[in-house]
Amino acid sequence: MTKFKTLVKYLGPGLLFASMAIGTSHLVLSTKAGAQYGWVMIIPIVLANVLKYPFFEFGIRYTTVTQKSLIEGYLNMGRGYLWVYAFVTLVSTFTILAALYIVTTGLFMNLFQLSTLNIGLVSLGLFAFISGILIIGRYKFLEDSLKAVITVLFIALLITTFLVIQKGPVSPIANYQAPEIFNEVGILFLISLMGWMPTAVEASGWVSLWSIENQSTQRDKPSLKIALQEFNLGYVLTGVLAIFFLIIGWLTLYGTGTELSGSAVVFADQVITLFTSHIGGWTYSLIAIAAFATMFSTCMTAHDAVTRVSIDVLKKLAPSNNTFKSKSSFTVGIILLALVNWTVIIAFGSNMGDLVALATFVSFVMAPIVGWMNLKAVKSKEMPKKHHPRTGLKILTYSGILFLSLFAIYYCWLIVN
């Protein structure tokens, strides 16, 4: 019981990671995986979660031991490493948030029957609302509120998944032929799924900064063992919920021949309508709340994280500039990111496919590089040898780097040809 209380006390970075990761990769891609290809897609989902685990774990490991952010670790290894991470962060700034907000806007418009309103106007309101929460509440409020959101989300999805399993699979249409997985379209979908499952590898830097914030709210610093246990709890939760979404998509959509739309509003309407028509109209609120809570919490955590990491990168690249060190830098960063990504949404319209494709491409191609940088950081001279990753974790890391590198090369080959 004492160990459990200690773990609850230090809940933070792992919880925020789960909240951030359970977004597009789960609601959109996991659902599509089950809907289009069936239960077999559980294999790449589990594989991606296992092979990427060390990259995120190293963010917690490095920060807990050194009391420094992973971004500072990149700088200590050499300025070139920091520039690589800065490039990935720049792309995230203009793509990931916009993609997340447009899906969330679509769900919000569907939930409250606001289809007659302009999606740009609704997304602006969502940007303003979340920005206000983050500016006023800061990290502590974010952490506390997400404990409630994640609890509601988990319960809602657990009930939904149970009801779907109890109802059984939907009847397939006549002469239904399952799509090929190992053709160009299938491989590109696999790459998108695994590229964002559980999330982009550069989020390891986000977890590191959340760890620093969490420690600043505690009287005593957590031990490495406790910090890793807290993170592992959140990481396992992301994997379990990805499987929930896969099961829901598989049992309610697989075999129906339904084409899921690239439009945020239409996609939201399709998913919720199809779920309720299969289980029963009375479940509409349950499913709609689960879907919206998924994306709303992801928007909050991603907006907070991209702001923090952008400011930290700029601090390290321009240490003599006091602008990024001021107390108002976080507020300014939140507002700037909101305006930039709202502009991106207006430019791209309601089609989220192009945004997700660009973000996925950069994240997937850079994943093995960022993973290798993280391994180098936790094996650096700043880390006492007793805290270096053990042999099994190192083997898993090298396996993940090799696997993601081969996939990235093949992805680039497909695009060029």
Query: Main sheet?
Result: none
Classify the secondary structure makeup into a structural class: mainly alpha
* Mean of pLDDT: 82
Question: N-to-C SSE series?
Answer: HHHHHHHHHHHHHHH
Number of domains: 1
- In CATH, the architecture is Up-down Bundle
Radius of gyration: 21 Å
**Helix proportion range:** over 70%
**Count of runs of 4 or more consecutive helical residues:** 15
Given the C-alpha coordinates, what overall shape results? globular
CATH fold-level label: Amino acid/polyamine transporter I
Distance between the termini: 58 Å
Strand content: under 5%
In CATH, what is the class? Mainly Alpha
Strand element count: 0
What would your notes on this structure say?
By secondary structure, this protein is an all-alpha fold. The chain has a single domain, classed as Amino acid/polyamine transporter I, CATH 1.20.1740.10. 78% of the residues lie in helices and 0% in strands. It has 15 helices and no strands. The model has no long low-confidence stretch (mean pLDDT 82).
